[in-house]
Amino acid sequence: MASPPTGTVTFLFTDIEGSTKLWEHNAQAMEVALARHDELLRRAIEEHGGYVFKTVGDAFCAAFLTAPDALEAALDAQRLLLKERWGESDPLRVRMALHMGAAEERDGDYFGPPVNRVARLLSAGHGGQVLLSLPTQELVRDQLPAGTSLMDLGERRLKDLFRPERIFQLTAPSLPSEFPPLRTLESHPNNLPLQSTPLVGREREVREIAERLRSEEVRLLTLTGAGGTGKTRLALQAAADLLEEFSDGAFFVTLATITDPELMPSAIAGSLGVKESAEQPLVETLKNYLQEKHLLLLLDNFEQVLQGAFAVGELVAACPELKVLATSRIPLRLYGEQEYAVPPLALPDPRVLPPLKVLAQYEAVRLFVERARAVKAGFEVTNESAPAVAEICARLDGLPLAIELAAARVRMLPPQALLKRLSDRLKLLKGGARDLPTRQQTLRGAIDWSYDLLNEEEKMLFARLSVFAGGRTLEVIEEICDPEGNLDILEVVESLVEKSLLGQEEGLRGEPRFVMLETVHEYAREKLERSGEAEQIKRLHGEYFLTLAEEAEPSLRGAAQLEWRERLEAEHDNMRAALSWSIGGRDATLGLRLAGMLSRFWYVGGHLSEGRRWLEEALVKGSEAPPSARAKALWGLGDLASLQGDQERGRTSLGEALALYRELEDKKGIAESLCDLGWIEMVRGGHERAKELLEEGLAVARESGDEWTISYALNMRALSTLDQGDLEEANALWEEALALYRKLGDTGRVRSVLFNMAYAECVRGNHERAETLAGEVLTLSREKKGDPSMEAGSLLALGIAKMQGGDHERAGALLEESLMLLRELGFNRDVAECLEVMAEVAGGLGQDRRAARLWGAAEALREATDNPWVLFESRLHEPYLTAARSRMEEAEWTEAWEEGRAMTLDEAISYALEGEEASG
Hints:
Layout: E1 8-16, H1 19-25, H2 27-47, E2 51-56, E3 59-64, H3 67-83, E4 94-102, E5 104-106, E6 109-111, H4 113-123, E7 130-133, H5 134-140, E8 149-156, E9 165-171, H6 203-214, E10 220-224, H7 231-241, E11 250-254, H8 264-272, H9 282-290, E12 295-300, H10 309-318, E13 322-328, E14 337-341, H11 356-359, H12 363-375, H13 386-395, H14 400-407, H15 415-428, H16 438-452, H17 456-464, E15 472-473, H18 474-481, H19 489-498, E16 503-506, E17 512-515, H20 518-531, H21 534-555, H22 561-570, H23 572-586, H24 588-604, H25 608-621, H26 627-643, H27 647-664, H28 667-683, H29 687-704, H30 707-723, H31 727-744, H32 747-764, H33 767-783, H34 788-804, H35 808-825, H36 828-844, H37 848-865, H38 871-886, H39 890-901, H40 905-913
């Protein structure tokens, strides 16, 4: 038997696919087959110099001195397994994975990141498949066995959440070559973030968390513990391990940058990609979205928004297939909640040290060693340093964050020197606040000690960096934290990253973005408050982001709209921080100006409720602000309220904005306010008043000379003209608006106008022209990713056109696609119209009872959202409704109609998507 190789080795891991089912099917036959499986694998491994260091059930773990030997062993093993006659047992399908790296060998076992990596690579494969990592492929590609090759499967994210791995598959004439997609993170819906370092240890905790979440009675599990215990990393790994068991995926929601509980639903919606609906509260939209989904929701840092826990309780109660995994320093105190107290890492007793090989098996020591090696290559625990390493880990109570901060100092100081400094610092903290948990005091000590190692420039910048929320770029750090230009920002930031007090992420277009762990952030905020310059730095922060919002606001309606929207989304947490500081009493005028400038962003970004709340508060607190700032904020509030369906509040705010804009003689503001007021009047049925307002709005817009304002007024006036039945005039106005929008490069508004024109052609019955226009909108929407609302609208318009042209089958397919998008977006008013057109398609196919049900469901939905037909909708749909009703006996129609009206929203959508019902 070969001896265990050391240094850089190649690992071969194997296991049997579906072994549990094989045991259940025929345990006696499986017992015989497994013995033969073990014999064949050992023979292949040992004939090529491999060392089997562990077997767990049907899984083999082997190590080789060279990668080619490991590959030959895998190839021979697969060939032997494929040739074997398995008797009464089903054939055994064995998956294999190869990965190489430096790992520690202790008493015949191996430890270190390569071991964990090959296990994750194995979990991605299928029975009969042999997978190789990129490092292994590079070692074997020039020494491949005859007749074999390596198929590049691309770069994939493995379930260890570490860096992506480029994966290769061994192919040979005697091996199967076709397999299902790899079981990697890409194969299931998720947004689980990759981690900068692999998880060390914690196998037991991850397994326990996963087992509890698998239990049917566990719907909400909260990981609790002090800051720095590693709750987030544990939760992420458990979610990754469970990903295949949730058909609709696992989604991570960070709450670390949110302090307002009312913003929690927005954070959840943002992570899920759920758009806010104007017709209902966001929590209700989330309920509708999640109601039938088998999904795991990971809510991180819940202690930030503890008062909003009731909303999570509502989601769990309303969504039977939803499970929630939360991390929090404090339990959520919800009915049915189960808690999992995250323990510290396993620790040695420094008073009775085990042998050196055994010491490295403790998780806390392993973490210290791995992180120390990241900053000092070749770091090893020696007989001399072992007592100090064990003492450091023990003094830090096995807290991962504290250990990582300590290990980062190995670059400068050996463990013995670190222990002395750490011990002195901890002694100084014994007189600290007694109401803090012991672990938190210890963690504070670790951060204190790291802070004391900074020079004066680093300390100053570290404190000032706490003014940010959700990250910061080098550019903004220079502007806010070093207005005098006295610091070498790049050098100081780099030093803080190296000392683990800052983290680095990739931001927009590859630009680095620097973040702080929340525990470190809290510490830095304390330092800023004690520095005496907190108000100055917060003012600089507020002024910077006001300037950014002012620069962005006009660009949100032009060619650069998407770029600026992405930038504002990236800085949204910083905008919130600036609003909280200013509106909270420090500078209400600045807050009002900032809120007003962000109103268009809140609209295009789908943050309707949040934007409305900021604007309401800013208008109350900023009563002394200049009229121009108040007018902007009032206009924004009116616009958002109207979009949410609160037409009365919208009309009031827009009326106040209009009055101020008239005083200021601001023609752009006057025109936009008039147009928005005109739309509200049209929706409310005040058609003559709407016409007056929109005509005046267009006239003032032309006087202003601003082409975007003119385009906007033309578009709105055209809708009113369409409502009055003058389709020719409406098209003329749209053509003029379209030319201006194209000149301005505003592709979003180009799509909007084209959609309106397509819809108008549907009203006219000109289905061929409608189809051409709607097709153009659909193409533009799909090319410009991130515009699902316009994609849904264009599918609806195309469906109407196809239905009018008699192509009912194609119309039905388009409408189903539109309906699914509209349901995800929460656009219930548009859902109602989609149901109406689907009723028209059903009528065209002779499915009269189905049509009646859909008409009834659509009417109930319109009543529930207070959205009756406007005149042009009535002209479009009423003839089909009348015709459908005339084809049925009154009693039969009424019965089917009422059946539709009795459906819930989800029932109506499901019914619409079922297709033609069975006859009879």
